[in-house]
Amino acid sequence: MTSLMNEVAELITDLTSRLAATASVADDTAVSGPSETAARRPEAARRPEDDLACAARVLRTEADALTALADGLNGAFLRALDLLSGVSGRVIVSGMGKSGHVGRKIAATLASTGTPAFFVHPGEASHGDLGMIARGDAVLALSNSGNTHELSDIIAYTRRFDIPLIGITSRDASALGEQSDVALILPPVPEACPLGLAPTTSTTLMLALGDALAVALLERRGFSAADFREFHPGGQLGRALLKVTDIMHKDDGLPLCRFDASLSEVILEMTAKRLGCVGVTDAQGALIGIITDGDLRRHLAPELLSERADRIMSPRPKTIRPKALIAEALRVMNDKQITTLFVIEADRPLGIVHIHDCLRAGAA
Which of 139, 206, 279, 354 is most exposed, with the fewest beta carbons within 10 Å of its own? Predict the structure, then answer.
């Protein structure tokens, strides 16, 4: 029994020694191996310059990739533009994973710049959402590998119903590259991720290529700032693109009188409309002058009420065109140190804008 116990004790001692030796080797490897580099230092040991160098490396990698993408644009891009500009329906954008996130942004950019578009998730497409894609539409599919399994049903659907397919992929010899009517092939550039696995450079290229398509389509169609505002009525952008016709006082709210009206009529009109002025028109309805409350004070006299409007009006009042933005109206009023502008077309007053209207609309 004693002999057996001694043998067990020796085995335990031997196993303990082996485990200690293995741990020692692992520790030595951890100290002297690849983790000694700046990229693999423990967080506590990393220096600020290491993080800055990493960020700069990522940005330069992606910037170089964008340059390669721009230099490589060719007839395929033009064919994609022709296809998209000729679509009578909508542009359906689809992609899986990170490509899907990029696809949602591309669809939003297309839609907001005059190309009706929306995103369809490839997984949901296989369970009924293929019904969202109809003849007259076009599909823009994104896949870095070009062999994304979830896109297979969308690709097959477009081939079956003769729906134009544009693919954005890095591999020409892939399911997406081969089946697309137009394949936009990304240049062979490395991912910015040091492992070469996380989609970084590739998604940046997809996003930029989507922007290039959207802006080129915008310019082809002559899409204007006024058109842009129609799709962006909310927020600061929408306020900045408001026109004077959107906020002007018109119809019954427009203070006007004829040139031969008495000053008593002018005062009643000015009081009723509460804008501090009245526009004076000729017999044909053209705007020829303006009377402000300041003009009334300067001409204050016992015989004032018997005067005609054209005797005390200021001729050639400051005006603005109907399609002008309210930011322009505010600038004119500030430059001329006035508080109102008549909006005219062919010399006839359509409305009037007060500086307070511009400020309430957020033009400042």
Answer: 354
User: Of 165, 151, 168, which Cα lies nearest the Cα of 205?
Assistant: 168
The residue among 246, 253, 245, 251 whose CA lies nearest residue 321 is 245
Domains of the chain, CATH where assigned: 57-223 (3.40.50.10490), 244-360 (3.10.580.10)
Which one has a higher pLDDT value, 233 or 76? 76
Is 70 exceeded by the pLDDT of residue 167? yes
CB-based contacts of 230, cutoff 8 Å, min separation 6: none
Is-above-0.85 flag for pTM?
Answer: no
Which residue is associated with the tokens 């490589």? 72
Q: Is 340 helix (H, G, I), strand (E, B) or coil?
A: strand
According to DSSP, the residues that pair with 168 across neighbouring strands are: 142, 184
Strand, helix or coil for residue 162: coil
Q: What share of the chain is helix, strand, coil (3-state, %, to 5)?
A: 55, 15, 30
Query: Alpha carbon of 145 to those of 52, 169, 175, 182: distances in Å?
Result: 31, 6, 9, 16
How large is the greatest C-alpha to C-alpha distance in the chain, in angstroms?
138
Give the DSSP H/E element, type plus range, for residue 351.
strand 348-354
For the beta carbon of residue 297, count every other beta carbon within 10 angstroms: 8
In this structure, are strands 319-320 and 91-95 parallel, antiparallel, or unpaired? unpaired
DSSP string, 298-315: HT-STTGGGSBHHHHPEE
Model pLDDT, residue 26: 40
Going by C-alpha positions, the residue among 332, 116, 184, 347 that lies closest to residue 244 is 332
User: CA 314 to CA 290: how far, in whole Å?
Assistant: 5
Q: Is 65 exposed, middle or buried (0-12, 13-18, 19+ CB in 10 A)?
A: buried
> Rounded CA gap, 179 and 169, in Å?
12
Amino acid at 240: A
- Is the per-residue pLDDT at 280 higher than 50? yes
